[in-house]
Amino acid sequence: MEVKVINNTVVKSWVRHLDEHGQQEVQNLCTLPFIHSHLALMPDAHGGKGMPIGGVLATKGVVIPNAVGVDIGCGMCAVKTNIQIAGIDETVIRKQILRGIRRQIPLGHDHHKQAQDEKYMPQGFDTDSMHVVSRQLLSARKQLGTLGGGNHFIELQRDDDGWLWIMIHSGSRNLGKQVGEFYNDKADLLNRRWFASVPKDINLAFLPVRTDEFQKYWAEMEYCVAFALCNRSLMMERICQVIGDTIPGAEFDAAINIAHNYARWENHFGENCIVHRKGATSAREGEIGIIPGSQGTCSYITEGLGSPESFMSCSHGAGRRLSRTAARNELSLEEEIARLERAGVIHAIRHKEDLDEAAGAYKDIDEVMADQADLVRIRTRLSPVAVIKG
Predict the structure, then answer these.
(1) Which residues form the domain of 149?
(2) How far is CA 34 from CA 3, 9, 68, 218, in A?
(3) Whole-model pTM?
(4) Is 268 among the catalytic positions?
(5) 17, 316, 347, 351: which is the annotated catalytic residue?
(6) Is 344 inside any structural domain?
(7) What is the pLDDT of residues 309-334, one digit of tens each?
């Protein structure tokens, strides 16, 4: 961990290299008057919008919608099976399991034609009082159990003992985007009305705790976190059904299901504060987490060490090394395909536009894990077998 002071704000960083855009965002964050203790940067950090992805920000008395992001509740889900990979023919994986998953789960911008059963939706929320969620519920029910695009994925993996695992990375789909953008715009409007000292162009508009807008955002954010968890859970249920129909006797452990885009009230350094994790994972002592790699590289099931310096957090993945545009311009399609095929991965790299999610676009996951050895310990290493992308 490196410690430095920027604009009288302490920054504790586990990242080896932060891109120029991310560095500017750190400079901007360090001008905020309501930071609690310090700013933390995880080893996968890179530039985002307002705050670097891989950033952990604790604040006193305010929430910042752009420090949560627009894919509210985005996260990971993983399940271990009782199936040995060595016992599954590759043809069965390709033609029965992968095809079956694609039939069950819409990918990319696709969604279900029919609204999914309400029983799969988050329960116990007063959605009638929510400005954005109440208008988006029917649309959200059609998006429930869908993957989305970008860096979202479904992956079949093997652990070091040869057992098959299923891993999903997905979030709150368009619902989270609508909520995030609405309340960021609301915060920006109010900040200008209050003559707040936070400039508009740094994309860090805030909502104070005592305002109605804070309460409304908080309720809708929590709903989106719950919706994202339900989304992953329904996809996992249907993937397990496909595998169970294909392989008689298949059994599935309880799912590990975590978020890495949210804000939460926590107590750190003796004070209650709001911890924003934007592309960062909670890593309290003993807490089980998931840190995925990229296509063709390992992922990890982890156990948190409860480091106070990181606000008990760790990375949410490998983190981008290249922007999407740079990846398409700089990476070789042939080399990236060859890398995956040497590793024996049934992959999702077919065209030049797929290169923004190639392994070469991401940081070295093993370096990232080494750089956060004081934040998490590795419980299980998972190697990719087959990848489905949106």
Answers:
(1) 2-321+362-389
(2) 19, 10, 16, 18
(3) 0.96
(4) no
(5) 316
(6) no
(7) 999 999 999 999 988 899 999 999 99
